Amino acid sequence: MELLHQKLTDAIIKTFYEVYNELGYGFLEKVYQNSMYLELKNKGYQVEAQKMIKVYYKGAEVGEYYADLIVENLIILELKAADSIVKDFENQILNYLRSTDCEVGLLLNFGKRPEFKRKIFENNRKK
């Protein structure tokens, strides 16, 4: 069974490991974000950094957040530089997916050891 946007997510995860292997552990998230942005752009992907996304409650705008990276208008990347992935990070990316037309999110942690989580929130379940 093919996962949603599998080829693209595979390419992003491969890039994540390339960046991690080059930089290692211990930098601020911004360094990893800039590196992922450059590497994905160099591979020919459309990438947006710090894209503002509005959050609505019952039709009224109640806030906004900035996605670390959005690739091909399909996949939200949330980058962390923490000891490990915690439930709060997973909930954060699910909320981001809920607020957009993106259905796939990748949580990429540049921690002591690299780790990622792939999250899905299908558009037909939103609203």
Characterization of this structure:
This protein is an alpha+beta fold and 127 residues long. The protein has one domain: Trna Endonuclease, Chain: A, domain 1 (3-Layer(aba) Sandwich), CATH 3.40.1350. It has 3 helices and 5 strands, in the order H-H-E-E-E-H-E-E. It has helices at 6-23, 29-42, 87-98; strands spanning 47-57, 60-71, 75-80, 104-110, 114-120. Strands 1-2-3-4-5 form a 5-stranded mixed β-sheet, sandwiched between helices. Strand 1 (47-57) and strand 2 (60-71) form a beta hairpin. Helix 1 (6-23) packs across helix 2. It starts with 5 loop residues before the first helix and ends in a 7-residue tail after the last strand.
Whole-number count of domains: 1
Q: Give the number of DSSP strands.
A: 5
Mean pLDDT: 93
CATH class: Alpha Beta
Number of helical runs? 3
Could you give the order of the helices and strands?
Answer: HHEEEHEE
Please bin the fraction of helical residues: 25-40%
CATH architecture classification: 3-Layer(aba) Sandwich
Shape: globular
| Structural class estimated from helices and strands | alpha+beta
Summed up:
InterPro entries: GxxExxY. This protein is an alpha+beta fold. It has one domain: 3-Layer(aba) Sandwich (Trna Endonuclease, Chain: A, domain 1).
Task: Spell out the key features of this protein.
Trna Endonuclease, Chain: A, domain 1; five-stranded mixed β-sheet; GxxExxY protein; 5 strands; about 130 residues; globular; GxxExxY; single chain; alpha+beta
